[in-house]
Amino acid sequence: MSNKDNLKVKEEKLKMKGTVIETLQGGNFKVKLENNVEIMANVSGKIRVFKIQILRGDTVEVELSPYDLTRGRIVYRIS
C-alpha cells in the first residue's frame, strides 16, 4: 500500500464573487457576496506577497470552507 492510498481527499472550497464593503485591521475585510450574505475575509498569501491592494468597492473572488460559511479567503482581485 503506497502513501497515495492513505491520503485523505481535501474538501472542495466554495468559490464566490463579492464586493468589499469595509476594510478592517490586519488584512481583514467585510465582503458582501453575490447572494447578499456578508462575511469576514482575509487575504491569501499570494496577494500579501505581491502586495496587491484591495480597497473598498473592489470586486473579489472568495474561497469559503464548507464547514464555516461566515469566513473566507480572498484569492483574486477582479477590479
Count of strand segments: 5
What about the largest sheet? 5 strands, mixed, barrel
Name the overall outline. Answer: globular
SSE pattern: HEEEHEE
Which segments are poorly predicted (pLDDT under 50) over 5 or more consecutive residues?
none
Structural class: mainly beta
What brief labels describe this structure?
5 strands; mainly beta; OB fold (Dihydrolipoamide Acetyltransferase, E2P); 79 residues; 2 helices
Structure description:
It is a single chain. Helices cover 11% and strands 44% of the residues. The chain is mainly beta and 79 residues long. A hairpin with a 6-residue loop joins strand 4 (59-64) and strand 5. The protein is globular and about 45 Å long. The chain starts with a helix and ends with a strand. The mean pLDDT is 91.
Topology readout:
Blueprint: H1 3-6, E1 14-23, E2 28-33, E3 38-43, H2 45-49, E4 59-64, E5 71-77
Parallel strand pairs: 3-5
Antiparallel strand pairs: 1-2, 1-4, 2-3, 4-5
Question: Care to give the gist of this entry?
Answer:
By secondary structure, this protein is mostly beta strands. Helices cover 11% and strands 44% of the residues.
